[in-house]
Fold this sequence. Notes:
The structure is a single chain. By secondary structure, this protein is an alpha/beta fold. It has three domains: about 5-85 and about 175-180, 3-Layer(aba) Sandwich (D-Maltodextrin-Binding Protein, domain 2), CATH 3.40.190; about 90-165, D-Maltodextrin-Binding Protein, domain 2, CATH 3.40.190.10; about 190-270, Alpha-Beta Plaits (2-Layer Sandwich). The chain has helices at about 15-20, 35-45, 65-70, 105-110, 115-120, 130-140, 150-155, 205-215, 250-260, and strands at about 5-10, 30-35, 50-55, 60, 75-85, 90, 100-105, 125, 145-150, 160-165, 175-180, 190-200, 220-225, 235-240, 260-270. The strands form three sheets. Strands 1, 2, 3, 4, 5 and 11 form a six-stranded mixed beta sheet that branches. A hairpin with a 3-residue loop joins strand 3 (about 50-55) and strand 4 (about 60). The protein is globular and about 65 Å long.
Amino acid sequence: xxxxxxxxxxxxxxxxxxxxxxxxxxxxxxxxxxxxxxxxxxxxxxxxxxxxxxxxxxxxxxxxxxxxxxxxxxxxxxxxxxxxxxxxxxxxxxxxxxxxxxxxxxxxxxxxxxxxxxxxxxxxxxxxxxxxxxxxxxxxxxxxxxxxxxxxxxxxxxxxxxxxxxxxxxxxxxxxxxxxxxxxxxxxxxxxxxxxxxxxxxxxxxxxxxxxxxxxxxxxxxxxxxxxxxxxxxxxxxxxxxxxxxxxxxxxxxxxxxxxxxxxxxxxxxxxxxxxx
Length: 277
């Protein structure tokens, strides 16, 4: 069976790398989307079987717009993969360092290379649609004063040159991606659950919710707060924890959390991914 798999951007993005690695050994039809909304709409409507969406980076933290969109779509996380982010400074072949004046890339990529820009203050940072598009743009301009931050795959695909390799701030720079689909499914060996919860606005609400997990011996892997639209200085919480939603204990915990909350959505249950270095 051929799966239709979507991701943001075009050939050479880290999202494409994540999709190819996650579905390695399976036949897929790739589709690059302009933005997360377009991709998730295609998943919800059945135009895509799966999408691979970045949700967190070890340098810059949560990718909030991804999580916030998960609330709005009828989709389910069924997989996870961690991809090392190695940002190369990519140029037209033959370009010398002193010719470069501008560097194009996705805002996340630019922020992950803050140390490089601090050491090279003459370089102007210019946000662009995505890492691969920025490499394509520099190639099409044919202007040696322009460079891009992107992956080795983008440099190779567009016939460009990596002038400097791995200019990101840390060698442990890594992005976590979730694989989502419109069909609820639990893969064999699933051991991690992601939820969104809106608690009643009263003292001890978060403490009591976390206590439900603690008394059941469930390990909380991630806790993030995000503003609730339309409610001033009130917050929802994204929680990742160990466990499978098919287990009786986890079902009971989710039932109790739902009773104590104004709203709760299970984003998905999947097998955790190991870190890659």
